[in-house]
Amino acid sequence: MATLKEILTRRPVAATIRLMVPAGGAKPAPPVGPALGQYRLNLMAFCKDFNARTQKYKAETPMSVMITAYKDSTFEFTVKSPKVSWYLKKAAGIDFGSGRAGHVVASTVTLKHVYEIAKVKQSDPYCQYMSLESISKSVIGTANSMGIKVVKELE
User: Fold this and answer.
1) In 3-state terms, what secondary structure has residue 87?
2) Which one, of 140, 149, 48, lies nearest residue 104 by Cα?
3) For the domain bounded by 84-151, which CATH number is listed?
């Protein structure tokens, strides 16, 4: 339950903005500029902060960012690691999943790949309290739906 002080000091939210921005590639140009500009947010502050937070990732890695814009022109944002499907496509060495998942196998990945992807996803704010086993099961489910076969070891 929130205290009276927290309720009185809450800032009114103007919008919640979701963007896909390449790691280390936030610029005041589209798609970042128009999305933040309409709420009069400081573009350069966002770009510098986002690029600093994502410097550990390889350039051009698609990062999901959720920005909370407040009516006083301030903002907060959280950065999530890339989607599981992006990691699976990179591990499998393919550009697209199978058009007929369950019938046609697009590629294969090993359990080690699944484990590594699950370890990266565990650092996400929404997955940090989930067990590695449950995240791994979710990764395997995503792989199956993409037509990627999970094997113990590659032949």
Assistant:
1) helix
2) 149
3) 1.10.10.250
